[in-house]
Amino acid sequence: MVERAFLKYFVTEYHSQAPLWMVLDLRERVPWQEIEQVNVQTYFMAYSELASEPAKWNPQTRETADHSLAYLLATAWRDGAPSLATFELDRVRDPELRPLMNRIQVAENPEFTREFPASLPTQVEVITRSGKRIVERTTYPKGHLQNPMSDQEVEGKFRSLAEPVLGETRARTALDTLWQVDDLANLGVVVDAFVVQNEDV
Questions:
Q1: Is 37 helix (H, G, I), strand (E, B) or coil?
Q2: What is the pLDDT of residues 54-70, one digit of tens each?
Q3: What is the pLDDT of residues 79-115, one digit of tens each?
Q4: Can you tell me the distance from the alpha carbon of 7 to that of 36, in angstroms, rounded to the nearest whole number?
Q5: DSSP state for residue 94 in the 8-state scheme
Q6: Closest CA to 48 of 62, 68, 65, 18
Q7: Residue 155, helix vs strand vs coil
Q8: What order of strands is seen across the sheet that includes strand 35-42?
Q9: What is the set of domains in the chain, with CATH numbers?
Q10: How far is CA 15 from CA 70, 144, 182, 193, in A?
Q11: Taking CA atoms, which of 32, 47, 126, 127 is between 20 and 30 Å from 133?
């Protein structure tokens, strides 16, 4: 079952992964200041989790922001790939981000819902202020079984999350321990590798 698990490339809610990949590509072609409207079509689970409530267009907490597709796409378009800093409250509540968020619409596509969970079809349409229209569609985000992350990508994500807490040396030790977990006689060493000591914080 571990080998069949989906991994999240980004530090965001799983169903945001596919649209985030497209937005990070689109931002290279369409600066956020030129966006007139963004129309996202997705499957019901993604719509329900990320866009079915008014609070998703005005998040005030980290948890709501993580489950707000409008917020995640707007910050990615403006600031680049999401990171832990994406969920700092000053950024979550940034009033300058709201106009862009309000130009993002999210709707369920029944055809996409029928294809889920075998695939995660998502379409993003961007209309620029000049009237240009760009449409992108994806099915398997990075981290899906059909589009797996490499060992290097998994390590990179681990280090980005562990090093601020454990420090570079201890994070490296923890990572080495995890790669050897199949051969360990005592799994307690895995737990020990993640004990936060006073000097780590």
A1: strand
A2: 999 999 999 999 999 99
A3: 999 999 999 999 999 999 999 999 999 999 999 999 9
A4: 33
A5: -
A6: 68
A7: helix
A8: 104-108, 35-42, 122-128, 133-138
A9: 2-138 (3.30.1330.120), 151-200 (no CATH)
A10: 13, 11, 30, 30
A11: 47
